[in-house]
Amino acid sequence: MIETGILQFNCGNANNEKAKAVFDSIDPTRFPILAIQEPMITERRPNVTYIPKNFRPSRPVYYGMRVVFLIHDKIPLTGWEVREATDHVEWIKVETSRGGLHLVNIYNPPGQANEPRIEKWPQLRDILEETEGESILVIGDFNCHHPLWGGAGVTREPKAEHLLLEMGKKSLEVLNERGVPTWQRNERKTTIDLGFASPDIATSILRYSPRSEWTTMEDHFPIEIQIAARIEKKGESKRFATKNAPWGAIIEDVAESQWLVNDPHTTIKNLIESIHAALSRHCRRVRPSDWSRPEWSPKAAELLAGARQAKARHRRTRNPEDAIEWKRMRNALKREMRSNARTRWRKLINTLTEDEGHPDHPHNSL
To answer: Quick one: how many helices (H) and strands (E) in the chain?
Structure first.
C-alpha cells in the first residue's frame, strides 16, 4: 500500500533549541510534509527559523507567524500551492494520487474556557465553505477541551461544542482517539492538538497517533499521520544506469527471447522490446539529480524528452510526418512551461501581497 506521512507538531517556539533534535531526526521520504505550529522566530532574527535539511517553508518566514508548512524539497513546486495564509491559519492544496488534497494548519490562541467559539473560527469557516465537498484535512493546536477527544471527566467547553457542531455540519470527522493526550507537563495531561477530515480522507487515514516518545520535551507531542495516498515527488528517471550493468545476464535474456523472425520490421520491434525488458529486469534506473529543476512538473520533463526524441527522429528520416510530430511535441512543451511559469508567478504574487501590513513585509522595507 502506498502511504504518505504528515507530521503535525506544535514545537513550542523551540525548533531552534530543545525540539531541534526532533526535526533533525525526521526522514523527509517518510514525512514529506510537516505542519508546524509556534515555530521559533525572534524579534532579533525576524525572518529566520530552523528548517531541517531537505525541507523548505511553504512561505517566507516572518516574526509573528504562528503556523507554517515545511515541505520536502523533492516535491515539485507545481505539486502544491498556498491558497491562503495568515499569522494563525495556513491553507495549502497538494496534488496526490487521489487528486487534490486541501491541508489546513491552524493555531488557535488560548482563551477563556467560556468563550462561545474559538478565536480563529471565522478564518476556518471561510476555508471550509470554499472547500465544501472536496478532500480536506484540518490539523493544528485548537486550545479547546471536550470529552469527545479529551476523555471522561474533561470539561465540555462552549467553544469546543461549537467547533464540534460546525465541523459536523461540514461532515468533517474527528481523528483523535478519545482520551489520548497530545500535551503533557509534569503530571498534567490534555488533548488540544486535533485533526478533522472529510469522509473520504478520514477513511484513508491509516494512523493518527501522538508520539510522546519522539520528543524529550514536556509539552506538545508530535503527531504521526499516515494517509493511503501518494504525494508526487520527482519522477523516476527513464534512463538506465548502463555503466555498471550486468551485461552478461542482459545478453543472455535477449538471446533467449526469440526476437528474430522473418519480417525485418517485426524483428527490429521485437529486439527493442527484448532489450528494454532485459534492462528493466537487471539494470537499475539513474537516480534523478538533487539539483534538477524542482519547479518543472513531471509532465514537462516527459515532454522535453519526447521533443528531443522527435527532433532526432526527424533529422534521421526527414519524413514530413516526423516533422509534424516534432512540432506538436515542441508546442506541447511550450504550453506546459507557460503553465509552470504561471504557477510560479502566482506563488510570487501571493508571497509579495500576503500580510502587507506586517513590518517585515518586503514592500515595507522599500
So the answer is: 9, 14
What are the two backbone dihedrals, phi and then psi, of residue 122, each rounded to the nearest 5 degrees? -55, -40
Task: Find the radius of gyration of the CA atoms of the chain.
Answer: 26
pLDDT band, very low/low/confident/very high, at 194 (cuts 50, 70, 90): very high
**Nearest one of 325, 343, 324, 330 to 304, comparing CA atoms:** 330
Q: Which residues contact 329 (CB under 8 A, 6 or more apart)?
A: 303, 306, 307, 310
Most confidently modeled of 228-232, 297-301, 312-316?
312-316
Q: Is 348 in a helix, a strand, or coil?
A: helix
d(CA 193, CA 30): 21
Higher-scoring residue by pLDDT: 238, 137: 137
Q: What is the 3-state secondary structure (H, E, C) of the chain?
A: CCCEEEEEEECCCCCCCCCHHHHHCCCCCCCCEEEEECCCCCCCCCCCCCCCCCEEECCCCCCCCCEEEEEECCCCHHHEEEEEECCCEEEEEEEECCEEEEEEEEECCCCCCCCCCCCCHHHHHHHHHHCCCCCEEEEEECCCCCHHHHCCCCCCCHHHHHHHHHHHHCCCEECCCCCCCCEEECCEEECCEEEEECHHHHCCEEEEEECHHHCCCCCECCEEEEECCCECCCCCCCCECHHHCCHHHHHHHHHCCCCCCCCHHHHHHHHHHHHHHHHHHHCCECCCCCCCCCCCCHHHHHHHHHHHHHHHHHHHHCCHHHHHHHHHHHHHHHHHHHHHHHHHHHHHHHHHHCCCCCCCCHHHHC
Domain 4-233: CATH class, spelled out:
alpha beta
Per-residue confidence (pLDDT) for residue 284, from 0 to 100: 86
The confidence band for 291, taking pLDDT boundaries of 50, 70 and 90, is very low
Domain boundaries, the chain: 4-233, 235-239+285-366, 242-283
Order across the sheet with 99-107: list the strands: 80-85, 89-96, 99-107, 136-141, 193-197, 173-174
Q: Which of 162, 152, 167 is nearest to 115 (CA)?
A: 162
**pTM listed for this prediction:** 0.69
